[in-house]
Amino acid sequence: MVLNLKKSYISYLFIFVLLFSVSEMVAQETAFDGTLSGAEGYEIRLSTTDDYISNRTVILYETWVDSAGYFLLTADHKEIRKVFIETGFYKLEMFALPGDHYQFFCDTVSLKNEYRPLYNLGYLPCSLISGDTSGLNEKINHFDRLYNEFVYETFSGYYQRRDLRVIYAFEKKTDSIFGSPEDDFFGIYRKYKLASLKLSIAPTRKAKLFQEYLNDQEIRYNHPEFMNFFTSLFDRHLTGNNRFIQRYELKEMINQPVAYDALIDSLGKDTLLRNEKIRELVLMMTFKELYYQPDLYAPNILNYLNYISEQSKFALHRRIAENLIFVLTRLQNGFPAPGFTLPDLYGDTVRLHDFLGKPVYIGFMNTLSFASLGEFEYMDSLFVKYQNQIHFITISFDFNREVISKFKDEKNYNWTFLYNGNRYGITEKYDLKTLPLFVLIDGNGNILQFPARKPSENVSASLERLIDQ
Question: Does a structural domain hold residue 451?
């Protein structure tokens, strides 16, 4: 009887430990809130990088800053992630721990009646007042200040001399401030940021750095500094004088494809690629590098990636392959144009799908952009000439619907105008960095030209060829 009790106790203990371990991996809700005067009525979003091979950005949460300037963003995640908060022309980046509640104090921003390109976002002037319970962001910011000062003051000298000793001296200095690096997020951050610095000035020590920092190490897929070192070390690894495999061999296996197992096995000759996970990650990096090369057949690269996305032994690799397919094919000729749903100037909902059947010529524009203003008259001439064969759409990024509506009526423009306003969705989908930008879509909803020629750049030649098809 005693023996049975012991067995039951051990069984219950095992189940408890198992359940506790599983619960540790359950996603927890993390919150971010504050008051941002000047951004009332603007969309605000929280995003992260889904993986550091494709570098695909994914939206975790998006909402609107309310009439009092208050915003609240939430996300569910299982581990520390680098996240971005964006609104208007501003962006903030930070590291978020699962389950924390981050509260911000923000200065006033200027958004209304301004146009700025989106390729160089300003710093969102918000600082943490509570929530960084582990002090992670404070420690990273402190280390980054020391790192940036060190690089600024000494980089040119040690880079020219290829002298690693000065980096080791700085490494010891940071150890005296923060302690020896532990195997936690901050310790890995410090270790691999300095490893990347060593690699930058001593690329011939690649094999030694691999042994020190990657060999027999856990691959930390979601750690930005670990993956920055990984991708830097293996940058052009298979295409730049690799003594184990030549580029022409890769070219043959892509243009006249072999079984994926044969391709991945052929890379195992490389002494740095004996680990299966590393080998497959480096191969995916190489596919990304080679996809746009004119002497390689891109559809076969997509076929290999599709195989990895379905058959890889490693779940995270399957997701990375899916992300790479998305990144490589989005906005490419022959692939589906991103769909959208937007209001017109009368408030009716309009979808891209509504225009299928005829080609569509879309202009993303803003009346505060002088470059956009210069295109409207040319657009009108095109509409008059081709309105029966082609749909013309202007998507307005003006901050007030009445402004673009009045502008359209005063100019007597009669093609379709849609209003995007302060939304982010279409900006992300069409990778908008500055305005105006134009795209030409065929009658089946596939990209024909991205970016397309502007109305002022003799786009009519493209339109004529399209009509004649």
Answer: yes
